[in-house]
């Protein structure tokens, strides 16, 4: 029988999740913020699709918008574990607010800090990391969602600038952002090697924020179509070497998926907490419903699933912090945590019975919010592509 090497994803094979004093303080700060600042008004913002402008400003002041960015650019200089801990806490209460945090941290600040030029970092990252400005990541298009190499948006090289034309869809922070990282095709003949990433400012001529989507969940976050009509993008706003844009997007999304996994975990944990507490006060057949095994077993399953998802999320964060590969562990965390978010929120509604179906008990919102975690930043099917390719790689 041949010896089979178990070196599947080049991730770490040890873990130390001992949370430091700093991690515990971040958890406390995020929990306090979520309960004191996000919870009031969360139902109204969801109902009216209101962007949490004031709350985002405060999150910037508290350092939640550039958590992992080097302090020399205005960030918190924290590790990924701190980030997922904060994401979980914020998402327990308000997943609309937490996706704004996730996109700004993972998809915008991280990409700029890792691959941007010093000038780009000074000009843009310093504002994004402090929350003075908000960022958006623009990859998806009407005809290129999961199939991200099929970009139709074009950026034609005109010497000292590129001329950007096209449409981007489902862009988180689409209406509220100041700066946009836009992925576009510069040379169709080169396929994914002819794709570049650019920093685009909202105020530039030819840039238009299109209609806002009326969504099932995360209704407080603003998701828009964006149109680019002959937008002049200076050459110095291209990120990285010519042709690096697709890999830039893929590498950035690998980290983004850890943030969304933490968001899904928080949604699940928030729904579980509500269901557990409700089951201890709601009575049926002469006793609190938690005393019925039908409910107690649901709680046990929810708890085990959440703990397992939490370990995957922390493992992915750990891999990133150790400088190991996290493509697979991030994809596994997102795949599993988003599944657990969906299953747990459905059960939380069930435990609440009729009350679960009305807004004031919060679980119906969490159930609607959970669904997107199986779709954005790579659907569950895309995560399976990433995982299976990783498993079968030589
Ligand atoms: N890191 C570095 N390079 C990577 C990479 C990674 N994680 N993944 C792929 N690449 C490289 C490959 O090595 C390859 O380069 P070479 O040819 O030089 O070897 C190149 O990229 C193309 O890769 P593939 O051949 O694997 O490309 P593919 O067409 O088969 O697609 C995919 C791969 C994983 C399916 C990718 O298209 C994908 O991730 N799709 C999903 C896109 C997505 O997540 N969209 C979400 C939108 S963003 C969003 O939701 C934001 C929001 O607002 C919340």
Question: Which helices and strands occur, and which strands form pairs?
Answer:
Layout: H1 21-38, H2 42-48, H3 53-62, H4 80-93, H5 95-115, H6 118-130, E1 135-138, E2 154-157, E3 161-172, E4 179-185, E5 195-201, E6 207-212, E7 223-234, E8 238-239, H7 245-281, E9 283-284, E10 287-288, H8 293-321, H9 327-352, H10 363-372, H11 380-392
Parallel strand pairs: 1-4
Antiparallel strand pairs: 2-3, 3-7, 4-5, 5-8, 6-7, 9-10
Bound molecules: acetoacetyl-coenzyme A.
Residues 103, 137, 139-140, 146, 148-149, 171-172, 192, 246-247, 250-251, 253-254, 327, 376-378, 382, 385-386 line the site of acetoacetyl-coenzyme A.
How would you describe this structure to a colleague?
By secondary structure, the chain is α+β, with helices and mostly antiparallel strands. The protein contains 11 helices and 10 strands. It has helices spanning 21-38, 42-48, 53-62, 80-93, 95-115, 118-130, 245-281, 293-321, 327-352, 363-372, 380-392; strands spanning 135-138, 154-157, 161-172, 179-185, 195-201, 207-212, 223-234, 238-239, 283-284, 287-288. It has a 4-stranded mixed beta sheet with strand order 1-4-5-8. A 4-stranded antiparallel beta sheet has the order 2-3-7-6, covered by helices on one side. A hairpin with a 3-residue loop joins strand 2 and strand 3. The longest helix is centred in the last third of the chain and has 37 residues, at 245-281. It is globular and about 80 Å long. The model has no long low-confidence stretch (mean pLDDT 96). The structure holds acetoacetyl-coenzyme A (CAA). Acetoacetyl-coenzyme A binds at residues 103, 137, 139-140, 146, 148-149, 171-172, 192, 246-247, 250-251, 253-254, 327, 376-378, 382, 385-386.
